[in-house]
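[Meeting: bench + compute handoff]

Bench side (C.D.) handed over the final construct sequence. Compute side (W.E.) agreed to return the predicted structure before the next meeting so the bench team could plan truncations. Sequence as handed over:
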Amino acid sequence: GEGRSGESLWMGSAKTNVGHLESAAGVAAVMKVVLSLRNKQLPPHLHFQTPNPHIGWERMAVEVPTKLTAWEPAQGRRVAGVSSFGFSGTNAHLILEEAPPRPEPVRKQDVVERPRHMLVVSARSPSALEEQAKRYAGALGEASVGDVCFTASVGRAHQEQRMAVVGGSAEELKEKLERTAAGEVVGGVV
């Protein structure tokens, strides 16, 4: 368009990579653009050696990538248009923009561990509750105590028979579960 300067419009097609797909041409083009956005690269337009001399390429800010090209963001973002000309004569145009960057994951060393945890165990019967307590006692050493307590609290259905165990470590929770399953009355277990 008029007034464009410095930034070229990159033009390619899915047909050059996979052939003419008739009614699937549009979805193939969308997949190609999504992969290009994800990888921040423009794939080469195959078999493009001699531009059409009847097109004023030097007057337009349009380029065809002939080799794998880094896709630098224009004005801070990557945006692409997909035009599809369907077998039935239907034409469609879609504009795609890259997703915003993902937030940095929380590093394990940045997580502040709670001083106490509460493990919620539930089952349909007292004997099933005892078995569930034994299973948790056996699994507590394999995973993060905070993750186990969170998942047991919000990720499982709460049944009629319930037990809450409070402890400062996996070892303490495990010991309380084992003692309670053995029939002892233990502080910090309700």
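W.E. noted at the follow-up: The beta strands are 9-10, 41-42, 62-63, 69-70, 79-85, 91-97, 117-123, 161-167. C.D. will use this when planning the next construct.
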